[in-house]
Specification:
Blueprint: H1 4-15, E1 37-39, E2 44-49, E3 55-60, E4 63-68, E5 74-79, E6 85-93, E7 98-114, H2 116-119, H3 128-133, E8 137-144, E9 161-164, H4 177-190, E10 194-200, H5 212-218, H6 222-234, H7 243-250, H8 252-255, E11 269-273, E12 287-297, E13 306-311, E14 313-314, E15 316-321, E16 324-329, E17 336-340, E18 348-358, E19 364-365, E20 373-375, E21 381-383, E22 386-395, H9 415-421, E23 431-435, H10 444-462, E24 469-472, E25 476-477, H11 488-502, E26 506-509, E27 515-516, H12 526-539, E28 551-558, E29 561-567, E30 573-575, E31 583-586, E32 592-594, E33 596-600, E34 603-607, E35 616-619, E36 629-631, E37 640-641
Parallel strand pairs: 1-7, 7-10, 7-23, 8-10, 23-24, 24-26, 25-27
Antiparallel strand pairs: 2-5, 3-4, 3-6, 6-7, 8-9, 11-22, 12-18, 12-22, 13-17, 13-20, 14-19, 15-16, 15-18, 20-21, 28-29, 29-34, 30-36, 31-32, 31-35, 33-34, 35-37
Helix pairs in contact: 4-12, 10-11
Length: 653
């Protein structure tokens, strides 16, 4: 269940995609509202919409700015904010309307972007209930940009500013824990109000947050952009992924409402689940099949939340109960388990319908029969395995087209840049923090080019120079490998470090010493937010604070050993538990072996009896490494390698 919530929320958000563009254009963009934070120390852009030619006036603390609305109905001006602090009132008016913003503070505004680990709320972090209870920080304000995909530039962001309190941080999907801990530490040290703009969606790759113009120049995303343009020209729902539109085009079951309780399935074949595809004539073929089963529930229904369990499914399923949507998952979320919303189940006969898109020969339902069940609120188990009725909706054997990818959340290039970044700009900000990379890990080498391009897009869009951009390096995930191995997650950490090193005014918050082997959403978000804060305190606020752990500087070849030199070894190299780890070395044959490591000043000497003439070394180079090398300030070493041999993601596009 730990992975499902974010994709389910994203899926639901897609159902209302496009809604934000249908509202009338307001006098003032929703980015400006009661309880907001204006950026100190620079002119603040404020904008909205009025009649062409109307004069719009903005006033704050005796400071006044005016502009004339353009022919497109948009007005835009800049005003210098008053001294940090507040609260202030902001008055905005034209000839016919007037808006007053109350409880406005002046301080520093940070844009908080990424995927689900940035999105993860305080409630799902370690000691979450206690953290929420203590979240009484009236000088921290936050604006959560509602999830919205768009195939064209979007004008109106959806959301509102809130004052940080135990109540507000827990409302709705909740405040980002990483952003909260970042802001809390900054505010404690700098003593100015902090505004957070939470602009993130679970499961999304970096290309969704990048402009189509930039992606066209990169060339790697032309196929996705072409599909985006095709779907845009057709109209219809803007899902932000490929699979939902593909279903709309080809799925007979969707077109004919095969999930409906009134649908007549008398002509469907009787099949056995698990299984079903062979009886329907598509045992080896990619196909979409629908399955229906009637079950009988007790009267009265027991109280409590019911859950439907379908085991492991390859590749996608969409599940309905009594004609109502109950859940949908892509291949990453196994085994399937969905909470059943109140009011769906009823005493007596109930209909369960499952649509499965199978792409592999042995795909479909892959678990044992006893893993398929409906669990009622009192723990009663209703078996679901056995006799169902089934029908083929799409026989997707060649030459039938397949979708470009199967995710059911936003993955199409540019759709979140246009839907969620463009409508926020050019809000005056201090900088951005970024926690993303999981969705791009299999294309880590490409990320070296993609992420700088995205950063450049954001900086150009906001028009405030090379503002700070601080990146979270991926934590440990999946289980430790007992032998040295190639790893896409290690290559992603390398790509993130490469970007932080080569992009102006960027920095890296290393988290490889945190994580959970079984959960891509680790609970230790306080340390992540605070390490991002160290980057800001040192780089933006000029505090004398260490913000980076030991960083590979150079390698020296010794007889039968390598000597690795480090920068940022503030306070000396420190090992927390055991030997310095985790180092491996290889000779010219590229065969890797674990290495013995010894600290010598601000360097480490590595060797192995298995490698007589070592050529290269690696440190913490796997998805879940032993990462126990720190500096005296307690910050972990950045995972690295001394070689430049081709990695496993170098040719992945």
């Amino acid at each position: 269940m730990r992975l499902k919530i974010f994709c389910v929320l994203s899926f639901l958000a897609l159902m209302v995609a496009g809604a934000a563009d249908q509202v009338p254009l307001p006098l003032v963009s929703p980015m400006f509202g009661d309880n907001m934070v204006l950026q100190r120390g620079k002119p603040n852009a404020i904008w909205g919409w009025a009649k062409s030619g109307d004069t719009v006036r903005v006033e704050i603390a005796g400071r006044v700015a005016k502009t004339v609305t353009g022919a497109d109905g948009r007005w835009h001006l800049q005003i210098q904010p008053p001294a940090p602090g507040g609260p202030y009132m902001v008055k905005i008016s034209d000839a016919e309307q007037s808006v007053t913003l109350h409880e406005v503070l002046v301080g520093d505004v940070w844009l908080c972007g990424g995927q689900s680990n940035m999105e993860l709320p305080l409630s799902r972090t370690r000691n979450g209930a206690d953290e929420i209870a203590a979240a009484n920080h009236p000088e921290i304000r936050f604006f959560t940009v509602r999830s919205h995909v768009s195939y064209s530039p979007n004008k109106i962001p959806q959301g509102s500013w809130k004052i940080c309190s135990p109540q507000t941080v827990a409302e709705g999907s909740g405040l980002s824990a990483v952003a909260y801990f970042f802001a809390r530490r900054i505010q404690q040290d700098i003593h100015v109000p902090i505004g957070l703009v939470q602009d993130c969606v679970g499961g999304t790759p970096a290309e969704t947050w990048t402009s189509p113009e930039t992606l066209h120049r990169l060339k790697d995303f032309d196929m996705g952009l072409a599909e985006l343009e095709r779907l845009k020209s057709q109209g219809g729902t803007e899902y932000g992924n490929y699979i939902m539109s593909w279903y709309d085009d080809y799925d007979l079951g969707l077109k004919n409402d095969w999930a409906a309780t009134k649908f007549d399935d008398a002509n469907w074949k009787v099949v056995q689940i698990p299984g079903g595809f062979q009886e329907l004539g598509v045992p080896d073929a990619p196909s979409v099949c629908w399955f229906r089963k009637e079950i009988t529930l007790p009267n009265p229904l027991p109280p409590g939340k019911a859950t439907i369990h379908l085991g492991v499914i390859e590749r996608m399923d969409t599940t309905y109960i009594n004609g109502q949507w109950a859940g949908a998952s892509a291949w990453v979320e196994n085994p399937r388990a969905y909470f059943v919303n109140d009011g769906i189940l009823k005493p007596g006969k109930n209909l369960v319908t499952v649509r499965v898109f199978k792409t592999k020969t042995d795909g479909g339902f892959m678990s044992k029969p006893d893993e398929l069940k409906l669990m009622l609120g009192d723990g009663t188990s209703i078996p679901l395995a056995g006799e169902w009725k089934g029908a083929v909706s799409v026989d997707a054997r060649p030459p039938h087209p397949l979708p470009l990818s199967f995710e059911n959340w936003p993955v199409m290039p540019s759709v979140l840049f246009q839907g969620m970044i463009q409508p926020v700009a050019p809000l005056a900000i201090t900088g951005a923090i970024w926690y993303q990379g999981e969705a791009n890990a299999e294309r880590a080498f490409q990320y070296r080019t993609l992420l700088p391009a995205m950063i450049g897009d954001w900086r150009k869009l906001f028009g405030q120079g090379d503002f700070p951009f601080y990146i979270v390096s991926l934590p440990a995930f999946m289980h430790h490998q007992n032998q040295p191995t190639e790893s896409s997650w290690a290559e992603m950490r390398e790509a993130q470090a490469f970007v932080a090193r080569n992009v102006r005014n960027a920095a890296l918050a290393v988290t490889v010493d945190t994580g959970d082997p079984d959960n891509i959403h680790p609970a230790d978000k306080k340390i992540v937010g605070e390490r991002l804060a160290y980057c800001a305190l040192a780089r933006q606020y000029s505090e004398k604070i260490v913000y980076q752990g030991p960083t590979f500087k150079s390698v020296e070849h010794l007889p039968h050993a390598l000597k690795i030199h480090f920068d940022h070894a503030d306070g000396g190299l420190v090992v927390k538990g055991g030997k310095p780890g985790e180092f491996s070395i290889a000779g010219k044959d590229h065969k890797w072996f674990w290495a013995d490591a010894t600290i010598e000043g601000d360097a480490i000497i590595v060797s192995s009896p298995m490698v007589g003439e070592p050529e290269a070394a690696r440190c913490a180079w796997q998805s879940y490494p032993i990462a126990n090398l720190y500096n005296g300030a307690g910050l972990p070493a950045i995972p690295f390698r001394t070689d430049n041999w081709p990695g496993i993601t170098e040719k992945q596009k």
